[in-house]
Amino acid sequence: MMQRGELPPPPGTPPTEIRKKKKGIKKLFVRLKRSGSTQIASDDEEAPMGFQRGGRLRATAGARLGWSRDIKSNGDIDMPFAKWDTDQVAAWLHELGLSQYVSMCRVSVKNGATLLEASPQTLYSELGVKNPLHRKKLLLALQAISKNEKDKMGELDYTWVTRWLDDIGLPQYKDSFHEARVDGRMLNFLTVDDLLSLKVTSALHHISIMRGIQCLRLNHFNPNCLRRRPTDEVWPIMMEPYESGAEVMLWSNHRVMEWLRSVDLAEYAPNLRGSGVHGALMVLEPRFLADTLAALLCIPPTKTLLRRHLNTHFVSLVTSECQAEKREIERLPTFVPLNSLAKIKPKKRAFTRKKRGGEDEDYLCPFDTPLPSSMKLDGVINGASTTNKVPSYLTEVRSTDMVHKQRDEINQDVQTQKHSQAIVYRIIPCI
To answer: Most buried in the list 6, 10, 33, 170, measured by CB within 10 Å?
Structure first.
């Protein structure tokens, strides 16, 4: 039956076509009613658009799209951090890589002063920062802002740290470091407990990261200080060692593999992937010997000629003076050789209060770590740097969830003078 106001179909139209047209008109009115507008979207626009290769969205832009409309950039802000409003503080958290706490920040933080006065317990309860490494990152950044000191390590974000792990030969920890948002400032104040929470339990890998941090300090946290490719070097053609090992200290893991290929050990070079061997470990670590490198390369002890060949080139690389110091350390009765199978276990801490004497004992790379006496670097005297001093906001970190305490600058100067007199290597036993 025809409805009122409906035009009759043209003569000769089959009954099935009439029913299709009625359904199509009914479907049209249903769409208009649901959308609430006179514009009808096509079926392709209604379907959710997923990621397509070559599409409009980049794969790396997914985490930033949710905040691109609400958060402003803090690049042109000249006012003190304490006077920042909630939106500016939220944008600063997003720049740090802590965007998951932005929603709680908009509710609990009124201005920058509120965040500066926050304690670790407040960050846990009010902002919901339950990850202890995230709390440490936030506290260190707030301390740097409160002291109004610009440091190079603060410019190295967590994405740079993941690339740095590739350079020192430990790419297997990139996911855990990226999840914890470890940046350059956290590297400088990294503790053994922090590494254990990042699932780094190998003693050799602990020492590898320690020497990598020491190399960054000596180069003032220059992001481009490491050498990843062989340059125009005259060695080993002229068979002259590098001057004082300072150039070898900057070698990345890939550069060490290139050196192995140049000394006819190309078949063993791939064994260094994921081993944590880099130039700073070879030069700065007194317990890293040619035998240690041979064991990491999986050269059998029965191949004595091959090991002797490696030892000759290793001594030429790190200089004979540095090798002599390594031999002196090896003769000590307390010497413990490096072993790739040794593991670090967390210390059983007592409930008694510790003395104030050794604040740097728990740091992975203590600030008084000496250099080999054979190395000659500008601004370094007996292993203590004169240009890269310990910052005045040196923190006392016993574990990742404790308060970072500010130290007096006068006490820091006295401690630095005491540490500068150290000449003998500090031996770190494997636990």
So the answer is: 170
